[in-house]
Amino acid sequence: MSAITEDRRPSTVIASPPKRRRRSDHTYLFMALPAVILFFVFHTYPAIQGIIYSFTNFRGYGDYDFVGLRNYLQVFQDERALAAYRFTFLFAILSTVLVNFIALTIAIGLNSNIRFRNFLRGIYFLPNILSVLIVGFIFNYLFANFMPRIGEALGVAALSRNILGDPQLAWVGIIFVAVWQAAAFNIILYLAGLQTIPYDLYESADIDGAGPWQKFRNITFPMIAPFFTINMVLAMKGFLQVFDQIVALTGGGPGTSTESVSYLIYRGGFDGGQFAYQSANAVLFFIVLVVISVAQTRFLQRREIEA
Amino acid sequence: MNTDTKRPNWPVTLLLILGALTILFPLYLAVVTALKTPQELAASLFALPTSFRWENFTEAIRLTNFFTAFRTSALVTVTTVVLTLITNSLVAYAIARNQHKRFFRYLYYYFISALFIPFPIIMLPVVKQTSAWGMDNPYGLIFLYVVYGLAFNIFVYVGYIKSIPREVEEAALIDGATTWQTFWKIIFPLLAPMNATVGILTCLWAWNDFLLPLVIISDPEFATLPLVQYIFQGQFSTNYNLAFASYLMTLAPMVVVYLLAQRWIISGVTQGAVKG
Asked: How confident is the model at residue A160 (pLDDT cuts 50, 70, 90)?
């Protein structure tokens, strides 16, 4: 090692950058290539395989033939798949709106001049570090046992049975748990955004006699617009892929009333012998996710500039 | 804070404390349930237990084979975090320092674009692949976490490395350091804040993740903690006291880590996400 270093030193000092460049080029290539190959083999290649399978009638084992676009056409006529998309969209949109509303409200509270600030921040972030599955199990129990007792005690009929067992209401429980957990992350991001706002903006607004709502509308919200965009896009993307909450709370039921797209792909693909068919569904789901993310980002960023 | 000179805002403080109760209450219920007998639980859901039933925990440990799963989860999490920090930062360094070259620029876009690919699309083929190659075990799991982490981590690291002035490395190169030495001795230590971010996010992911172990791990002997809770829930769904003792033991390690390193965890997560 030291011999090589001795050799190189004069040429480096006298400045022959091309030579040194080329040597380190190989090193850089050597640093990056193994990762690229592994990423291709374990991520890109399976994705390509998934796309190829989506044009076949593969069941996960045995022989298969190419069937063209048949799987894709079937997804559009499959009531169960359409219901999963409807549920997923309803869930994701409502949860995204609720999470952002709640998180922004709490973040503004946490950013104001309160006591126990660090302690409260610590509490509000806690749900983010807990396993979604286990949080789901705990709430499953609350919905099954705790809520009905409260409902009975209060004499409210609607509350005195397990809402997770009701096909019309189970989604409410899932949204509740998802929002309870996801708000933590968004609160912290909004808090980071709120801390970038210079305080003199509020002072001059005070002098101009602006009320709290005016200050929020004209200072706070425009100033954190980029954080609003990030939070909306990340929350939507995460909620569209909802899986753990469904497993822990309803298992897609009652019936198939709370089946999300991810859950349907998992169940149909592994247990239902619909490997190829659910691959087509996954490809469609991918397209849907990209379109929504891009559209959402564009729309929200345009708003940022106007504001 | 600039507002510290003013009087504290008590109404907002009180509202936030009330809100915090909605977070603490379910956790309180989980703890008291885990410490009760089924009879006590039937009598009252929220009351404190009359005597602490620590047997619930020992019984849950026995039934779920807790320590085996704990070892698996700890092995997977620690190894994933260490390997991720070492490898992902290195790849990001190679990409960040060569962005003027088309090849590396395309590599960057290649990794970033993977962020848009939902897991279900690769889930079915990757399960066939890992089981065919004998990777349906914790080692395969570690491997996949490290490789799948690249997409997000390269994004976070590259942005940060670009903000480190090149002069720092050039001095080292002139002193005869190789590119490897420059990375390990100069750049890697400078990455400390990003390493903290990536380490925390990877740790939370590997410890709490459920879907990847669910589809990859075929032998129950190798189940991670969340997977064990899932199997356990199916088998013993009626004995809530045992189930909750088991849940708490799964949540506890991350809660302890959080209590010890709360400040860093919050700021680390913020840094990573704002970049993302």
From this structure: confident
Q: CA angle at residue B231 from B228 to B234, to 5 degrees?
A: 145
Contacts of B34 in chain A (CB under 8 A): none
| Confidence check: pLDDT of A5 > 70 | no
CB of B14 within 8 Å of any CB in chain A? no
pTM: 0.89
Interface touch A188/B270, C-beta < 8 Å = yes
| B139 CB-near residues (< 8 Å, 6+ apart) | none
Q: How many CB atoms lie within 10 A of CB B68?
A: 14
In this complex, do A28 and B97 lie within 8 Å of one another by their Cβ atoms? yes
Query: Which amino acid belongs to residue A297?
Result: T
Per the CB < 8 A criterion, the answer to whether B191 and B161 are in contact is: yes
Residues found in chain B: 276
CA–CA gap between residue A216 and residue A202 (Å, rounded):
10
B148 contacts A285? CB cut-off 8 A = no
pLDDT in tens, A214-245: 999 989 999 999 899 989 998 999 999 999 99
Task: Tell me whether the omega of the peptide bond preceding residue B213 falls within 30 degrees of 0, making it cis.
Answer: no
> Which residue in the block uniquely carries the two structure tokens 């748990």?
A177
Side chain identity, residue A128: N
Amino acid at site A104: L
Look at residues A95, A130, A119, A177 and name the one whose alpha carbon lies nearest to residue B20.
Answer: A119
**Does position A18 have pLDDT exceeding 60, yes or no?**
no
Phi, psi dihedral angles at A174 (to 5 degrees): -65, -40
Q: Is residue B102 less than 8 Å (CB to CB) from chain A?
A: no
Q: What percent of chain A has pLDDT over 90?
A: 59
Task: Answer whether residue A262 shows pLDDT above 90.
Answer: yes
Residue A127 to residue A131: CA distance in whole angstroms: 8
Q: How far apart are the first and last CA of chain B?
A: 26
Of B45, B91, B250, the CB nearest to A134: B250
- CA B172 to chain A, closest CA, distance in angstroms equals 12
Q: What whole-number distance in Å separates Cα of residue B248 and Cα of residue A137?
A: 11
